[in-house]
## 1
Amino acid sequence: GKKVLIVYAHQEPKSLNGSLKRVAVEELSKQGCSVTVSDLYAMQFEPRATRNDIVGCLHNSEEFNYGVEAWEAYKRGGLSSDLIEEQKKVQEADLLIFQFPLYWFSMPAIMKGWMDRVLVQGFAHEFPNCYDSGLLKNKLALFSFTTGGSKEMYAKGGISGDIRYLLWPMQHGIMHFCGVKVLAPHICFAPEYVSEEKRKEMLIAWAQRLKTLWKEEPINCSPEWYFK
Amino acid sequence: GKKVLIVYAHQEPKSLNGSLKRVAVEELSKQGCSVTVSDLYAMQFEPRATRNDIVGCLHNSEEFNYGVEAWEAYKRGGLSSDLIEEQKKVQEADLLIFQFPLYWFSMPAIMKGWMDRVLVQGFAHEFPNCYDSGLLKNKLALFSFTTGGSKEMYAKGGISGDIRYLLWPMQHGIMHFCGVKVLAPHICFAPEYVSEEKRKEMLIAWAQRLKTLWKEEPINCSPEWYFK
């Protein structure tokens, strides 16, 4: 069975994001996958990249450089235990699903903090091992999110621009950089402004997609896909 | 004199980001501006959007919706005091400068949390008051940041794509959405990989730019600027 890590960022279990997460756990488990969830708000996950992430002495205590310190700490097994735990989950996973409501054209800060702190140099990338040769190659990622704005607002020529524009930093800048192949995003537009029935259809569509997920080809994660 | 708020996210005062922040405070003060700094790490600024941001009872305690609760709390003066404090600083400012190291094609989580929590509906925007009629119109913003990657990597056709691609969510999705006009970004490429002398030149160039900043025209914040 495949291993899946769902990194989930919503405060409310009864939200559509909560339901989308549950649907994924159910459907993937039914397929025989082993599914782990990092429920970031429930874990009170720390988003701030600070000296607390490094156990013991610093490599350079004169001038704190987070990237260098996290890299050095990773190599000697000196990262804080919450980070080691998350890295273990990532290491074991074949597929990472990020489930969140879009905040300001991006992920909520608590999830950005997961990226900032978990994907350290040495673990997820290490020059020249980035992009296609990133250290997390052979894994897949999928961004599944809800929006406030409508599909029309996020169309090419719409007031908020093509939704793909805002996927570039997340899909290319983070996942592709680490060597992870990216599946097409799963987007529920403006669930707060549609009927309860429409929201149920959104859950069914997600469950439906998950049934054949392992047959999907990753996107071609290059500027053409985003900005053609 | 003009009022400037510098939102600053670096752990180390001796860093180049720390120096860029100091240079801005000095140069703008010399011009007679009144300058306020929100030093996010020093403040241990909370990046997580949670129920703690709402003082007193919830609008809907059955199902927590952060956006709705923050909006309702704003209207009745019931946001947590750290948010009220930041909103006051924003309200008074003519110019917002965001000073940070680029983390994963975006701002560090602690600064994303500032955006998520401070720029609430009712304060920064309120449909149909968004984009050109956003509630923070008549203000300017400038993103000033350092990168890990070189200028060549962030060129059009470079491995990380045009640096402008990653500015879209921050400049258009956040600032323009709130009605703020955006000045050209100030980017110091790969300061960790250049000489001490080159880093000094970067500080001088920033001070130099600030001397005539108030004469600058905002960019035309439309897809053409980013993706031509």
Note: The mean pLDDT of chain A is 98.
## 2
Amino acid sequence: MIYPDSLEKAITYFKKLPGVGEKSAERMALSILDMDDEVVQELSESILLCKNKLKKCKICASLTENEICDVCSKADNGYRNKNIICVLEDPKSVFAFERAGKFEGTYHILNGLISPIDGIGPDDINLSSLVQRVKELKNPEIIIALKSTIEGEATTLYIKKIFENNNVIVSRLSYGIPMGVEIDYLDEQTLFNALNDRKNLS
Amino acid sequence: MIYPDSLEKAITYFKKLPGVGEKSAERMALSILDMDDEVVQELSESILLCKNKLKKCKICASLTENEICDVCSKADNGYRNKNIICVLEDPKSVFAFERAGKFEGTYHILNGLISPIDGIGPDDINLSSLVQRVKELKNPEIIIALKSTIEGEATTLYIKKIFENNNVIVSRLSYGIPMGVEIDYLDEQTLFNALNDRKNLS
């Protein structure tokens, strides 16, 4: 036994966090000793709170502490556009969109992507409730914002098919070169996508 | 407010851990949601335990849950060599030595290094108790294992001076090239130290 029990335990559990290896876990556990009692208490508590308070929004499946998330209840009250639904893979993407702060519609979280190789079909992700939501809207518009991988594109195409001939505008985010990246650093697929999605300047 | 309150709080407190930025904190907080209840409970608890149970060993100032640490009590019972004291900067170094598993003596943790620039003098680190410990030993040997920085070397020299003319064997770890590193990647000081500490092969 190299570590005292309580240190060993903290290291073991810190290692369960994503991206934390043995060395970082040791550093984190030791840093606890130098923190104020209050901070340690709050850190410990916040972990429990996160697990116990957060649930999925009944409408869009985004994370919330209430029945309905902030964005959806704003939409209910007319402060956001209910008719535009941005389809996302996970709640993290909602935070990214909200940080950007330009989007005025609502979200719909799939919590997964269609992936036949992994045995994940359309019924395994949060799609049926999207169909339900769209049915209740006038002039609905769906913006699909999934990553440009095989799974992301398969899911995008599937959603497009569902709403074909339904008077629903369906678009996806453009693929292309990210801001500030040197062209010669881009992979072939990104370059190819950027070429295909090129924008006419005239 | 981009995040629900409890998520925001967890992210805020995860960011207080060393090496954790906004993105990693978000990832960590979200990972809590996918963990089993039990694991979350234990993680939360282990943080409190760490803070509340760990204290400094009365003899060497290493971390322990008892009055006296494992190493020191083994030495008291004759299972480790009480007469050899390895002087270290912090408890982390003890764990590194114990992992290596080759050292049979005891430790003494300074919890700091002499650094006139930062106003840290000999009285600000855990030195007087080392003098006390050494006084009670027969044929004491001190091995100084501090990093090779200005502060480390200043502290090493200071300790050497204290025990001069006291029948105490004082050594320091050799400076040199670390395992597996290409010679041309080494900085000048390391090369110079390795040259100075060179070992005669005959």
Note: Helices of chain B lie at 5-14, 22-34, 37-53, 70-76, 91-100, 128-135, 150-163, 188-196.
## 3
Amino acid sequence: MTPEPAAKAVSLRETLRAADGPVTLLGYDPGSRPLAPGSKAKALKALASTGEELAAQQEMLYAGGASGDPRRVLLVLQGTDTSGKDGVVSHVVGQVGPAGVRITSFKKPTAEEAAHHFLWRIRRALPPAGLIGVFNRSHYEDVLVTRVHQSIDDAAWAERIADINAFERQLVESGTVLLKCFLHISYTEQRKRLLARLDDPTKYWKFNPADIDERAYWSDYQAAYAAAIAATSTEHAPWYIVPSDTKWYRNWAISQLLRDALLGMELSYPKADFDIEAARARLQPPF
Amino acid sequence: MTPEPAAKAVSLRETLRAADGPVTLLGYDPGSRPLAPGSKAKALKALASTGEELAAQQEMLYAGGASGDPRRVLLVLQGTDTSGKDGVVSHVVGQVGPAGVRITSFKKPTAEEAAHHFLWRIRRALPPAGLIGVFNRSHYEDVLVTRVHQSIDDAAWAERIADINAFERQLVESGTVLLKCFLHISYTEQRKRLLARLDDPTKYWKFNPADIDERAYWSDYQAAYAAAIAATSTEHAPWYIVPSDTKWYRNWAISQLLRDALLGMELSYPKADFDIEAARARLQPPF
């Protein structure tokens, strides 16, 4: 499988990367499909082929982890309800070997979690060396929901932002490649997806009437996301704003970003740390 | 996807289930392929189609777990080095959504683990409700390696066996469906697979010269497996002895066993616990 030309790959990263400085999400069209393959069919084909690359890269990452390489990957997925975080886990992350990934879905903190610093449960869920960790929601919830519902004041918010930037810098310094994706959908698309869940009995369990209550805070959430993204999009841990009204585009784009993140690690299989010929000699019949 | 006739499915379970009473592994041919599809090509096709059933069943299991159903599945994979545990994780478990599985590979206990009862680390790795847990090696290592290398005496071994039976009974009583598979390969097949790793630089990391040392204890391991299987194959948690010299047969057979275990749970999607019409009415434009 030959990787696509690096020029194009780099350019998707650059295209989706959050702009430096203040962010307004109104400037990012959730229905756009920058650099997309020419059609849905082509995107699905590209996704499958990127999947093979992802699987091959992940195997090398895992082999390295088993042999002392401390590096790992952490994919952070954020976005409003129905933005497609579960879909990315299933269609993108599902393309690599299940033993090589560790997925954590962060819900409302438990009593024990809430009694600790907000990064406590996050640190416990970090992937070990060699694995691809996936956070379905993350520490960013603690600067989003809280800001929208004003359960923390501006000073506490700023302190948490500083904590997050320090935490992510530590992660990167200790060998974690961080890939932070904001799945950006429109107000209209969310309505469509919520209504679709009501039309499908196999999706009722995903529906919570409280999600409708939260939808009333849409603009506040968009502003909170924009503020958090602007404050935490750093050189070592930039944010990517992924237009996500089109599901196949979202999956294709994130698979490309993840592939590029892995390629950037320049992984290779560990060399043998034992005498191959001696081992082969011992394994001759009748032994 | 129409499930295959139940008669055939039941019959694979019955065929591979460890016989009651003393077990000698010499009586089970690792190269046999009982009830296999007629060819490798047909088996791969059947595996893909069972994969779709597995994915559909797992989604229902997950939905149930998210809605208060306490049930879960635990697939225990045991077998000597190169027997194909990683292959099953990748080719069988890899067919379901990655968020729905929790895989734990048990290695040599850490100092902290060794300082606790041998089931301590096992209990910590149990899958939550709605998930399929996979143990790549398990609590059975503690009655195998220890017996072969005589680090525990007969009385301690018997005590551990009793602990395991009590533990597994508790698991089943609290809603876990246990599926215990012994991947049975031959002495010759292990040599072939170890030598193959030495021929493939992408597999060096999987090779450990200590595995050759352990191979010298082959007969002791077979006897230890037989004793453990005989002592822990219970009505609620039977062992399946899966002939594993043929990789496609092993994958096909375990996918069938897992599928049957899920079908046996008679899963269904949770009903809506909210007013669907009221939710739909709230979601009309312009809201």
Note: Residues 40-65 of chain A form the longest helix (26 residues).
## 4
Amino acid sequence: MSLENFFNPKSIAVIGATSDKNKVGYAFMSNLLQKNSGSENVANRKIYPVTLNEESVLGLPVFNSVLDIPDEIDLAIIAVRAQIVPKILTDCGQKNIKNVIVISSGFKETGFEGAELESQIGEIAKKYNIALLGPNCLGVISAKDDLNASFAGRKPLPGKIAFLSQSGALGTALVDWSFQEGVGFSKIVSLGNEAQLTETDFLEYLENDSDTSAILMYLETLNDGPRFMEVLSRVTTKKPVVIIKAGMGTHGNLAALSHTGALAPQSDVFIAACKQAGAVTVSSVRGFFNVVKVLSQTTQTATPIQRVIVLTNGGGPSVIAADLIDRSKSLSLVTLSNDTKEALREVLPPMAAIGNPIDVMGDALADRYEKSLQILSEAEDTDAILVILTPQMMTETKKTADVLLKFKDKINIFPVFIGGEFMEDGRKELIKSGLSCFDFPRDVVESLDYLAKNAPKNKSPLHRSKDFKRQDGEMMDFVCMKNLLSEYDIFISGKFLTKKEDLENTLQELGEGSYAMKAISKQAVHKTESGAVRLNIANLEEANRVWEEFWTTIPAVEGVLIQKMEKKGREVIIGMKKDNTFGSAIIFGLGGIFTEAIKDTTIRVAPFGKEEALKMMKDIKGIKILQDFRGEPPVNFEMLSQIIVNLSRLALEHPEIKEIDLNPVMATENSATIIDARVMI
Amino acid sequence: MSLENFFNPKSIAVIGATSDKNKVGYAFMSNLLQKNSGSENVANRKIYPVTLNEESVLGLPVFNSVLDIPDEIDLAIIAVRAQIVPKILTDCGQKNIKNVIVISSGFKETGFEGAELESQIGEIAKKYNIALLGPNCLGVISAKDDLNASFAGRKPLPGKIAFLSQSGALGTALVDWSFQEGVGFSKIVSLGNEAQLTETDFLEYLENDSDTSAILMYLETLNDGPRFMEVLSRVTTKKPVVIIKAGMGTHGNLAALSHTGALAPQSDVFIAACKQAGAVTVSSVRGFFNVVKVLSQTTQTATPIQRVIVLTNGGGPSVIAADLIDRSKSLSLVTLSNDTKEALREVLPPMAAIGNPIDVMGDALADRYEKSLQILSEAEDTDAILVILTPQMMTETKKTADVLLKFKDKINIFPVFIGGEFMEDGRKELIKSGLSCFDFPRDVVESLDYLAKNAPKNKSPLHRSKDFKRQDGEMMDFVCMKNLLSEYDIFISGKFLTKKEDLENTLQELGEGSYAMKAISKQAVHKTESGAVRLNIANLEEANRVWEEFWTTIPAVEGVLIQKMEKKGREVIIGMKKDNTFGSAIIFGLGGIFTEAIKDTTIRVAPFGKEEALKMMKDIKGIKILQDFRGEPPVNFEMLSQIIVNLSRLALEHPEIKEIDLNPVMATENSATIIDARVMI
């Protein structure tokens, strides 16, 4: 199935074409006929209006059905009422049209009947091997091919950023906004209901699209999490992918829940999955739009911008910018060399600050910016210069803009013109000539931080796993669980006994020390609270007594787990939770009191290898606790990572399992002892 | 000293007035003469140019010295080179001018000589009882009095927000920006170097300024932290104060430092102090400007806006807005009543979403917004409506703006028009008629969150404390410290012994159990690491042995602290650190492993009462640990708060103390036991 003809078709049929300016069918016709580019492809592109109601549309003769068109059709656009879409789509199939956009709404977004209709058109597309975009979408725009197959009133400026959107509103808003910011797009796809083609199909198409150097996605749902991750992690090694997802809020309540399920709400898994696959995730529209501006003017997107110089004519805003950079974990202020400082000293007035930020002073004309940039654009270890201009009495807004434009091909320049009308000339000058203009320092710093945080890196290969839809479940029997885990070299500490007579031998086997005894019963899930855990048992006599007590006080005892008590170690949690979208999410975190007080966990989507497991553990906030700590050597990260990897394998090979808790796991320099575990099927 | 004449003088002398349009002296003259208001005061205001070089300036006759002016002068503005400012200021004093603005730069911002000159003019002002603003400032603007005593080219729109700025650049940028946003100001003061009058003086003045309903401050330094807090906490009960402070970044490194000093870097104390006094602190210029927009259109500023409805014509952005609200701790989405929903159902098309967010659909004309707002503006428990408009094919931008304006006096309406040129008409329409227009949902949500987080509340009275400048210091002797602390009812657990013979009696006194022994020595500050702490001592025999070991292995032992070991309890830290600006900062936090892994602390500036101490403890992230936890009852917050209050009193009465650590304090249901303490003088 080729998507190429969505963007560069030689012939297009518009079904539902009309001369009525208030209708979508008119907007499409009119947009398709507006061709600016002189390329042969574009000039020869044929547009065929199809309708029953009119004789000609925009001067073109009309056909009653696609079947009547004497030409081959590369792309059909359907904008008729939902009820007759199946009929029209069948016509397209019979005409052997392989790419179809259904604009019409009235499908699954309207309820049960619409959903029926939608699955119907999905079936028809499948039958005729049609690549179907929509329904309920706004269409497609391609800059290079000068194609506006959408009802956006005005085609966006050409550029190198592609945008895939599940929200029509955000798409039109972004396009409208892009004009005033001088931001251009390579391709825009409004995904609609995704009856067939999904965000992942177009993402994959854009992977090798040479016109696209960065990809934006607005997502509300994902159809196939594992495939999305697989494709995404491939694409992000080639070009940055920036994702904004709606529906990330959590009403989640951590109260008293220390099990894996509560520690990995779905939105957290989504963000973890995107990051793991190397994408940049953004949480606000403003953040998203700002990242677009930064990407649109960044010359090389392969290595992220991290080392920044701030150049300003006003102290206040530059101090704030420096603060923001300082607080970002991924950015840094360049420390200027003495040579650079001396050179600056020579061209700037004696009162100018020549550290970083460099303050050329409130009375600076454009020439001071120019002299400084001549020096700074050559500075070592510098990725970008953030240039702040505030409106002072002598400020030359437009001239300063012209200076910045001179340097834009030498180094990444991010102009921040703070103010209003006074700055307007300069702002327009920049945008006209291909530099974005930012309003406030945060707009740049936050965007650079987003991009740098997720610099592409080597990623573990991802396999697909399906059939993991979650249902309500029950706790796995202890013995089954113990056996299942041990198949994957995950061993629960201690011995499980069902006969009191075995106590003596077992204590001997475990060796001298004190012991813990745990009654295993489905009716005592919270062992501590229900009295099913006894600690500090010193000898056989005490053990026998506890055994008796268990059998008399705990309902439905199946047996007793006896463990040697660990004197030392730091508690961690390792867990797995099935996520409806991504499959197995593996959770690692500090255990015990830390889990309950603050949610200090990190998430990865399975499967992944040891290297990723090691990285994952380093992500927790309290990592210090597991490293050299109070005279204790670091815990054995190797052994922990082996458990994590084994657990991730287990989860994939047992799709019926919904949740696994290994909690607590006591970690020391040379051991990782699993004290307790739970598995939910 | 009255500040009134800075804003509404009847007569003004401009020293350094000139006809040279490139000079500041011209800008002032020209701005002062531009009077739009017809009020009698303004019309009769006299302007006297003073210069040696010209015969008339802007048609006004010139005086050679203020002493030559035959009229009384309420305000003098000095814009001559720094070196002759002392002479001119002396003239002003002799002329009995009580309010002077020194615009000239070349003072302490330039180094040692300038600082000399600055202290000289401070002395002169003092001698003649002059209220002096500046030097190195941009002047003053007052809307009501139609006074532009600044070199801002254009007077801001009149409004109800006052702005005090230590940054000239930010001030001019804010004014320039305010025109395009339709935001007005009551008074603007550029504070300059603050040779005499400070931010606090003007804050105090604005407290009772009936034209000002909200105050903005840009701060870089504070001269007198305690007085600032005292005034600020009074003002914030009357009107919101929003503060942006530059220089908040911290290169702070938590590595291995668990003592109070490391837990309270100066910037954290600043923020804590502002919040404690009821102010809103903002960290980015964009955040600051957005708060200004929100404040400028909020009708009542006394109670914060918290309960929000989102109304939209596009799903994507509204979901993101709802997410942002959801994640804010201080805001909430209104749950619409069934009546409201039914009413909406009747006026909106069947496919419209009538939950909150309410989606009037992409094809909505202005009338759907109007019908919805008629219902929603009457909705219960609602503080504000965030109205999102995205550019769709049929969208009526300007008409929708007119609809919003109809409701602006009924309820707080925050329009968010996402897009560019298409939205421009609507945006202009709103701003023209007194509504701000926001670009993105976050701009509103973040601002409301800032404002709601610090809703005014009852605050403890604040006293002044001075003379606490910090120097390098040394550790207080253990015995002195124990005595000092006990004067304030802060008792270190256990007995301090210097004679081995006392061991036996002491163990009896402490009662049965196991004991801890700690060798007290100035040469063993890190007790655990230097072997000066021994735990789990069972009896007298062992205690004697440890005693001997201490005396042979630890250098300079002064005595031994013997404590009964606490079986239970949760570790907390209580500490105090002197801050150069605010005096005593009191720190509370979870102790032990929590301090080291994550910095879970909260800060208040002393002194404060028990109520504030109780609130303070609730601010830590891991508060759960101290409440009902794993079957343990809550710790005794009463006792902890008593220690906190006592410590804050001690700190105030002993300005020579720089740092106090009570660490750890073991807290249980009915005790708060101080296990160890340190005091730095």
Note: Residues 248-258, 458-472 of chain B have pLDDT under 50 and may be disordered.
